[in-house]
Design a protein that fits this description.
Helix content is about 85%, strand content about 0%. It is built from 15 helices and no strands.
């Protein structure tokens, strides 16, 4: 692999690793401190909602300004936020600082995600976009593999605020690697004339594409269903593994790592094998729903783990399907703003799932909440098949170059 490609993927890995450690420790610390599934669900809602609300503005910024500069801002400011949170915790105490930090870093993570989404087609022109997605998500998922393991090891020897300081160091290292990539890369980004307005015009253009392109409406609807399952899984996994099944946090970290390993195997498969696009979408969506039902019905930890592996593993297969479709049909000059709005619409169901856990887990039980959302996702999938069966078909296979 070329040095500039390796540097880009390394920066992505380090940034993802830091973000994943933070995501891992927040619900765990809240649950261990309060011993409440409802509080853990509420913490997930608070930390995840800002991530998704900020997608439209971050997407418009990436169309208007240099996405490389935006990426640097994202990584440096996350490091600064980590240090500030530790200082505030030292002065005032309380675990709410880590929840607030996660919410702020979530917005900056969104900024980084959108910047990378915009620049990747220019960096890897020798590959099809979907193959690039598979390779980039391997780097991303490697962070998922190591994040929970490293977080668990850190929490064994350090208090959480020292772990946050280590996270700040990882964000800075990711930015230094990005600077090296800039110096060794000859990538030239295409620029397009944009409106000065960062709010109304970008939203009008994005919703216009969504209204006129049936395939966009289809993948948005399916993504809403998938993210109900992802949201309830993220919000309840710590409580289920540690509380419901009585396992320790090391076992929980191992479960999270196993999910990431499963995802990496699937992504390596997608990087090397061409599947029909329709099959890619149907297979991933069906197995995610099946995994949710397994986690809802399983009386034992091993059954829950099987369901969780299906959910988190095939989520990335669905992600490749969804992102391939939208890259092929959204005009390049409107890509950032449109993807920003789409991602917001896709992911609002994740914090909604966390909120439903907070409200319903105590009166009806955690597994019943998972079952309820699994049924909802099934109904969404059936509705999409019925409503969009006559829509314009997607390209025959995801290996087709979109250029």
């Amino acid at each position: 692999m070329r040095k500039d490609y390796l540097a880009f993927f390394t920066s992505m890995f380090l940034s993802r690793l830091a973000d994943q450690i933070l995501l891992f420790i927040v619900p765990l610390i809240v649950f261990q401190t309060t011993n409440s599934v409802s509080w853990a669900g509420l913490a997930f809602f608070v930390e995840s909602l800002p991530r998704y609300l900020s997608f439209p503005i971050c997407g418009a910024l990436c169309d208007k300004f240099s996405p490389i500069r935006i990426l640097h801002i994202s990584q440096v400011y996350r490091a600064v936020a980590c240090v500030a949170a530790v200082v505030l915790y030292t002065i005032f105490g309380g675990i709410y600082w880590i929840v607030a930090l996660s919410a702020l870093c979530g917005v900056l993570t969104t900024q980084g995600i959108m910047a990378r989404e915009v620049v990747m087609p220019y960096i890897f022109k020798h590959y099809t976009y979907t193959k690039t997605l598979s390779y980039s998500q391997i780097a991303d998922q490697t962070g998922l593999v190591l994040g929970p393991l490293i977080a668990a090891l850190m929490l064994e020897v350090w208090a959480w605020h020292w772990v946050v300081m280590a996270i700040a160091g990882l964000f800075l290292l990711a930015d230094l690697t990005m600077l090296y990539w800039q110096r060794t890369s000859s990538v030239t980004l295409e620029t397009f004339e944009q409106h000065r307005d960062l709010w109304l015009n970008p939203l009008r253009i994005a919703f216009g594409h969504i209204r006129n392109l049936a395939e966009l409406k289809k993948v948005i609807s399916l993504a809403v269903g998938v993210n109900l399952i992802i949201g309830v899984t993220l919000a309840t996994s710590a409580a289920m593994v540690i509380g419901q099944y009585g396992a320790g946090k090391d076992y929980y970290a191992g479960v999270q790592a196993a999910g990431a390993v499963t995802t990496i195997v699937i992504l390596f498969f997608l990087a090397r094998v061409t599947l029909p696009m329709k099959l890619l979408g149907i297979l991933s969506y069906t197995l995610i729903v099946a995994g949710a039902f397994i986690t809802a019905f399983s009386p034992h930890a091993w059954g829950y783990v099987v369901g969780l592996l299906l959910v988190v593993g095939f989520d990335k297969m669905f992600n490749v399907y969804m992102r391939s479709i939208r890259q092929q049909i959204i005009p390049p000059q409107d890509f950032g703003k449109t993807v920003g709005v789409i991602t917001l619409l896709n992911n609002l169901s994740q914090p909604l799932a966390g909120l439903l856990v907070a409200v319903l887990a105590a009166p009806i039980g955690t597994q019943q909440v998972i079952l309820l959302l699994a049924f909802a996702t099934s109904l969404i999938g059936i509705a999409v098949v019925v409503v969009f069966k006559k829509a314009t078909p997607a390209p025959a296979a995801y290996g087709i170059d979109s250029e």
